[in-house]
TrEMBL record:
Organism: Rhodopirellula sallentina SM41
GO molecular function ontology, one term from the record: adenylate cyclase activity
Protein's recorded name: Adenylyl cyclase CyaB
NCBIfam families in UniProt: cyaB
Entry keywords, A to Z: Lyase, Membrane, Transmembrane, Transmembrane helix
Length: 252
């Protein structure tokens, strides 16, 4: 009976050896847990792609686009009319962006968002940017409805997989199309709530050319960039902005 307290002291006071072993096990355990988390993310995203394969087949594309500051919106609309631009729609966009748990999209230049466009949810992934003045990168996009009418299921899935919500960008967007459908340029005029200037929402225009392939040739990219830059000149857009709306909002 007299040895029992001494025995307990040995139990609650680990030796240096047991401390070192515990530390090593803790480090190894942390690495294993991190690796499992990364694997779980990859597995989860592969499941998402499998479930949405029927829409992804038609959503693989390569976008070439450039953003510009707009000083005179009325003048821009007049110049769009002179280019025979067709008004397509005006919608409210609410874009919620996420960051990957195992790599930083800020560093890689990628983007993942859930867009609610007049309450219709879409998922968009944008890959890393090709070198050049005009943005060029792969884009995947598909609608979530009718199974996920408000995007809450996808949002919950991203949360479970460890994706972190970064911020939400709200804007009002007018969309115009110039040219034939198979070779069209899309021009959008955006009023971004969080980028206001002089008490008004920040006004920007984006010119986009979409190539319906995931890996276009260098010649195709160069030709599309030339078309975007040429149209910007004809529309009087001479103040390009390379940052995304998300980056601009976070840097304010």
């Amino acid at each position: 009976m007299s040895q029992l307290p001494e025995f307990r002291r040995h139990l609650v006071r680990p030796t240096k050896l047991t401390k070192r072993l515990a530390n090593r096990v803790g480090v190894v355990g942390g690495v294993v847990r991190f690796a499992n988390a990364c694997w779980f993310c990859v597995y989860g995203l592969s499941m998402i792609a499998s479930v949405c394969l029927f829409t992804l087949k038609d959503s693989l594309m390569f976008e070439i686009e450039q953003k510009y500051y707009v000083e005179d919106c009325d003048q821009l609309v007049q110049r769009l009319a002179a280019e025979d631009a067709v008004f397509v729609s005006e919608k409210a966009n609410s874009d919620t962006y996420y960051n990957h748990p195992c790599r930083d999209f800020v560093q890689t230049g990628e983007a993942l968002r859930i867009r609610r466009e007049d309450d219709v949810p879409l998922v968009t992934y944008k890959g890393t940017k090709r070198p050049g003045d005009v943005k060029a990168r792969e884009e995947l996009e598909w609608r979530l409805d009718p199974g996920d009418k408000d995007g809450s299921h996808m949002q919950r899935l991203l949360d479970v997989l460890g994706f972190r919500e970064v911020a939400t960008v709200n804007k009002q967007r007018q969309t115009y199309r110039i040219g034939a459908t198979e070779n069209a340029l899309t021009v959008t005029i955006d009023a971004v709530d969080s980028l206001e200037r002089d008490g008004n929402a920040g006004l920007f225009a984006e010119i986009e050319c979409v190539l319906p392939v995931a890996t276009p040739s260098d010649e195709q990219i160069a030709e599309a960039r030339s078309r975007v830059s040429g149209m910007a000149g004809r529309l009087g857009l001479d103040k390009p902005e390379s940052r995304s709306y998300l980056r601009m909002q976070l840097e304010r």
